[in-house]
Amino acid sequence: MNSSENPLNHSFSAELIIGALGASPAPTAIYSGEDIVIRFANEGMLALWGKDASVIGKPLMDAIPELEGQPFFGLLQQVWRTGKSFSISDAPARLIKNGKETLDYFDYEYKALLDADNKTWCILNTALNVTARRDFLQQIKEKEEREKVFNEELAATLEELTSTNEELGSSLSQLAQSREYIRTIIEQAPVGIAMLKGPDHIIEIANPRILNIWGREESEVIGLPHELARPELIGQPVNQWLKKVYKSGKPQVNKEFLVKLRHQEGLREAIVNSIYQPIFSGDGSISGVLVILEEITEQVLARRKNENDQQMLALAIDAGELATFYYQPATNLFSGNPLLKKWFGLSLDEKLDLSLALSVIVPEDRERVVEAISSALSKESDGHYYIEYRIQNNTDKKPRLLQANGRVFYDQQGNPLSLNGTLRDITEQKKEEQRKDDFMGMVSHELKTPITSLKIYLQVLQREAAKTENIFQQNMLEKSLKQVDNMTGMINGFLNVSRLDSGQLHLEKKFFDFQYLFSEIEDELQSTITTHHFDFKPSESILLCADREKISQVLHNLIGNAIKYSPNDSVITIAYEPAGNNSLKVLVEDCGKGISADDQQRIFERYYRVKDSNSGSIAGFGIGLYLCKEIVELHNGSIEVQSKPGSGTMFSFYLPLGKKFD
Q1: Which of 126, 137, 295, 427 allows an S-S link to 401, with CB 3.0 to 4.6 Å?
Q2: Rounded CA gap, 563 and 590, in Å?
Q3: For the segment 148-182, what is each residue's pLDDT rounded down to a tens digit?
Q4: Cα(603)–Cα(94) distance, rounded to whole angstroms?
């Protein structure tokens, strides 16, 4: 009967088998390929490696680099090539757990699973940590060897008729010391150990570790049957396991077993790993049971909390309608959550590499995305990745504008392992911004004419007030004109945003001496602003090729921000100096409230407004710094901010000087 006719195939699918392996307490993993790629690893194997589930899908040596120089990778490759399984007992392995290298011993098997052509299609790896068992059995073996040597020496002594009662007494003393030595080793063991004797499981030895787990004193349990000494186990399976091990001679191993233990006058729930090992006497009969117990309550609860945190993160991602992505440069694997696959027009079970993902990006943006990824992965990068681009899949044909935000993770040598991050659909947001821009542009155009007329009327009234020498009217009109100028500057800002979007914000670059512009702004501010003190640092004459009016606008915006967000009578420093790469550095520094790290990441975005922490209100329209950034970048320059909350803020921008040919 072929496999398709076998009725068992209808009930035992690959998913069920993988699920069963995942639920198994025994550490289990599945590999494939000459690179030994980890295709599956249950919780037991991940805990044994000291890793989390992120290693699945990686080559073994990339996932667990500390195996370098150990035989496991070579053995796995041999099993893969030959199809011959390999197993071994008490094999040493050095692994890194919680940042520390540990040496443990394992029974493990590499089982080659062959296809119809007798070729290996995967390797099943099972393992059991036998360090505690090995250490104890090693001590037992050493004790037996010492006793054997002693018996041989005693026999030889008797045969030669040279032994005396004194020597016999000495030998018996050595035997007692040997037994005491074994007891000392057990008492100092890092795990709980107890030796139960006979079918009633009389507690012969119980070290401090196991007594602490049991919640008992030595005087309460030694010499008593286990079932009588620990009545709290009634209704729990422990005593049944002991009887089964004593009767069958087969060990019982339990992983993450929940047990109720004595605690003060009541009970507590604990999670333990336990081994019940039969003890054989010299004639092969079972004389007792060795109990090895390790409490792992805190570790398991911490792991479950981490799993809960991961679930909460997943809920937050779903609530925020974020797509998540993961790119592995070594394998070119690009994966993500179901929302990402929906946007890219893929089925949930479909795998994709980077080239498939790039094909969904519109051609005009594709090369820019490739450059952004390469830049983020380069050694000169800070590891951050941020870009906006458009996609259109072949399934729903819906155009989307996405905002990608991610960071690179590195191995111990500083090489990039992966680029992880999120994608946000900002299509509607951008449409809303466009509608807002269109409205601002329209309103700004409509307001310019009445504002211009109002300014003319005010100037006429100001001249009339000067003729009559009416000081009060002159002051009021001067303040009114100042507010009209502020309104004009705001309107021009909105118009510039509209021109930026339509590509109509042109630069009129000319050579001018920046020192003159610097002095003009100094004179203007010193004569019009009395609420703050300005420290214009004098510097040398510097010839700059730029749009003088727009650079002046940048400086006014930055100084205006400093005035707005710093207390009255504080000092605002403005300075400039030559910088590297034939450029000019200009800075504006205040002693204000500062800007949080989160706001610094977004402060140059259009319409982004920093919240006033004192009043709770939102100040400004959120276009001033956006315009500064766009104007500076149109000059092929750059702008940056340095700030700490409560310690003031410094804005700096850099402009290329340009070359003047005579």
Answers
A1: 427
A2: 8
A3: 887 777 666 556 544 545 554 554 465 556 566 67
A4: 49
